[in-house]
């Protein structure tokens, strides 16, 4: 068991923003909420999966909706409290631990807020190893664990419990609900024991985010260290020259064009995103696709850039890393591969794309 302090939150938020591949909501908002909760209620205990007792249950909590909406319609403590209370009321049992649904953006921070408020530990794991835009896109769903019933709450005191026939139906119905209720809601789902987590969660992602965040915050050669020490790949250096972005159906969708600089001068990089970065092309050649991770990093600060924060003139590096092996299976690719999102590309592991290009 480890203690997570306010100083740790700074690094975890930064690292989770990188692992979130541009999505998961604004990490700055989540960081402020977590810092405030720890200041008010005390530090949070971080445990490994094996430290959960055999009969104890853990739940995931997150924000569902378009990241662009979350910048203006901020998640609050009241909606988190409401979702937590309705979740416990429905299941008739206490939640003994919490873990992030995804290790990205604001959704990496929301569990810390609840853990501090309720005095329960947070598990060093998550359900994606990155961020994805739809509710069935987690390692629990692809393992056959239903994401229903699912509890939702908004900032006005409204709450909803959705019971569906399968995980895909949960996504469709909840997305319509999110769209109707202002573009974002707090969601609580799953009741997971140690066996579920050991088999299906992506382990040690909070610790990984903390290590990555510390490199970003303290190193003058952050990209080089990430490439050398964390099996990441530098795909491109450039300046953003155009961003075509719109919010619809509970998602932020769009394309960013990046004009090459330095060794990539006279080249053009295209990033396609739906909440998260999904496709990276350089001069129309595929360099990386979902489910592998694509992240834009500010060249001045090394801070990861979210899809809702991309702006003309930003100078950035595009880096990529391997997805968790669960996403590289036939079922994983069918669930989150490029063809699912409507792109006419076959999934090829990023390391093979890099090797073939060289």
From TrEMBL:
Residues 8-163 form the S-Me-THD N-terminal domain. InterPro entries: S-Me-THD-like_C (IPR048350), S-Me-THD_C_sf (IPR024071), S-Me-THD_N (IPR010318), S-Me-THD_N_sf (IPR027479). Residues 166-350 form the S-Me-THD-like C-terminal domain. Coiled coil: none annotated. It comes from the Bacteria. This is DUF917 domain-containing protein. It comes from Jeotgalicoccus nanhaiensis.
């Amino acid at each position: 068991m480890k203690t997570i302090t306010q100083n740790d939150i700074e690094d975890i938020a930064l690292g989770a923003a990188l692992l979130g591949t541009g999505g998961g909501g604004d990490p700055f908002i989540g960081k402020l909420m977590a810092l405030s909760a720890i200041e008010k209620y005390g530090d949070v205990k971080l445990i490994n999966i094996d430290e959960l007792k055999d009969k104890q249950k853990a739940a995931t909590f997150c924000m569902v909706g378009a990241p662009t909406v979350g910048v203006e319609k901020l998640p609050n403590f009241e909606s988190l409290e409401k979702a937590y209370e309705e979740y416990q009321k429905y299941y008739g049992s206490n939640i003994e631990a919490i873990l992030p649904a995804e290790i990205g953006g604001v959704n990496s921070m929301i569990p810390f807020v609840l853990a501090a408020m309720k005095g329960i530990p947070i598990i060093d794991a998550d359900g994606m190893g990155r961020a994805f835009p739809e509710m069935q896109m987690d390692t629990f769903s692809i393992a056959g664990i239903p994401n229903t019933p699912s509890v939702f709450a908004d900032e006005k005191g409204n709450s909803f419990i959705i019971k569906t026939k399968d995980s895909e139906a949960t996504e469709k119905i909840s997305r319509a609900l999110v769209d109707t209720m202002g573009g974002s809601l707090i969601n609580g789902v799953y009741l997971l024991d140690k066996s579920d987590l050991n088999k299906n969660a992506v382990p040690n992602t909070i610790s990984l985010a903390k290590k990555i965040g510390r490199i970003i915050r303290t190193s003058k050669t952050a990209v080089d260290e990430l490439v050398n020490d964390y099996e990441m790949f530098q795909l491109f250096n450039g300046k953003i020259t155009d961003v075509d972005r719109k919010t619809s159906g509970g998602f932020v969708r769009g394309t960013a064009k990046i004009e090459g600089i330095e060794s990539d001068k006279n080249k053009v990089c295209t990033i396609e995103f739906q909440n998260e970065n999904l496709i990276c092309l350089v001069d129309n050649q595929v360099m990386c696709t979902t489910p592998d991770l694509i992240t834009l990093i500010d060249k001045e600060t090394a801070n990861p850039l979210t899809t809702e924060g991309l702006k003309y003139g930003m100078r950035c590096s595009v880096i990529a890393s391997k997805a968790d092996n669960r996403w590289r299976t036939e079922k994983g690719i069918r669930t989150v591969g490029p063809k699912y999102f409507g792109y006419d590309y076959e999934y090829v592991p990023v390391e093979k794309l890099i090797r073939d290009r060289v």
